[in-house]
Design a protein that fits this description.
One of its GO terms (molecular function) is cysteine-type endopeptidase activity. Keywords: Disulfide bond, Glycoprotein, Hydrolase, Protease, Signal, Thiol protease, Vacuole. It catalyses: Hydrolysis of proteins and small molecule substrates at -Asn-|-Xaa- bonds. Its main location: other. The chain has 14 helices and 14 strands. The protein is an alpha/beta fold. The protein folds into two domains: 302 residues, Rossmann fold; 92 residues, Topoisomerase I, Chain A, domain 4 (Orthogonal Bundle), CATH 1.10.132. The strands form four sheets. It has a six-stranded mixed sheet with strand order 4-3-5-9-10-13, with helices on both faces. The chain has a three-stranded antiparallel sheet with strand order 6-7-8. A three-stranded antiparallel sheet has the order 12-11-14. Strand 7 and strand 8 form a beta hairpin. Helix 1 packs across helix 9 and helix 8 runs antiparallel to helix 9. The radius of gyration is 22 Å and the shape is globular. The protein starts with a helix and ends in an 18-residue tail after the last helix.
Amino acid sequence: MSHLTVTVTVSLLSLLLSLVFVSGDVIRLPSQASKFFRPTENDGDDDASAGTKWAVLVAGSSGYWNYRHQADVCHAYQLLKKGGLKEENIVVFMYDDIAKNKENPRPGIIINSPKGENVYNGVPKDYTGDDVNVSNLFAVILGNKTALKGGSGKVVDSGPNDHIFIYYSDHGGPGVLGMPTSPYLYANDLNDVLKKKHASGTYKSLVFYLEACESGSIFEGLLPEGLNIYATTAANAEESSWGTYCPGEDLSPPSEYETCLGDLYSVSWMEDSDKHNLQTESLHQQYELVKKRTAGSGLGSGSHVMEFGDVGLSKEKLVLYMGTNPANENYTFVYENSLKIPSRFTNQRDADLVHFWDKYRKAPEGSARKLEAQKQVLEAMSHRLHVDNSVMLIGKILFGMSEGPAVLNRVRSSGKPLVDDWDCLKTLVRAFERHCGSLSQYGIKHMRSIANICNAGIQVEQMEEAAMQACPTIPTGPWSSLHRGFSA
């Protein structure tokens, strides 16, 4: 190893350590609607047998460091199956690279909590690998079999009396949700598809649970009332969501695991559903419990669970969307449930570093595994520095040294969508990535900055020129490469 390489390696490791709070032998990483009451003849109890229940479950990531997203989705499948939903009415999207991953200490098994059972068993492989993409997801929601490319061919072939439940777990950024393939899922496109589904008259009501950073931005100012859609999100439009059951937490995974097992919002609604009689618990009651648990314990971590759309639907019972496990029939709902609120959890955007660092910490000195983990930490940190510095420099080139940061960090008033022109946002994202490399799961945190550049009237030619100045070359690391295509 050359002197220069050693110097760079030591510098980056020092930078990482400067950002980390170490307690004992574990790592602590830093964080980087009005109501519409739908008229109804009853409270939903008598409707439980009417219509068909449909579900779409989406894990929008790949990579072992994102274990928790596929674990969340597998758990959701098991919950719905126990609730009585038929397999043909549950559509599952997941990359399926976790259960048999070389890093998985229990091959063929996925767990969603430290003492959890295998939630991977029996999960249908409807859309896996590169078939997990935006176009297939939209085709499934709309029931459009002819638009599918690959996969099982299963779609939501719903009718006017049916109830639909959509659950999505992944990384996110302002106005965007991740996908293991390109392009990513943009908020305006998702809401347009939901409007089309409503216009087709092929459901009675639809519930959407969304786990992602800045997930409130997916519906804020975009999901109108009157579509019979109720959505809840893990976070508001400006904050991270949180991983849980991570190495070093008070509720940590078994010692052989080096990754987070779940996401806080997701395990909150599922562990509540696992326990309660969903014939008697309402969407609103679950929302309140999940909101309390996801808010954390007041130590500076946690997020604000939000609700959007036809909030009046939340008075309906969960059984309409999730069914109910007969084993829970005699369980009496109480607001103060016994689900433990963890004292610490991990920022979604830091979960990859938690995995790489825990892997590095546990690997024997001088081993190939330790060198691999060190390389992964350095590549991830280098990419973060590159993206952060590139976006900041572009802002200063476009708006000046003092005004640039102010424009990039501007937050619109509550209730307004992220950007006025979504095509502009996508065009400027592509311009950035052509010259600076892909944003990746970390870089989409900067979507608000790029949206603000659009809102300020910057044209694509100006963005191209600024990006060329900021990024004379594209870094060669895996996080910055374009081998997976553009984000937009």
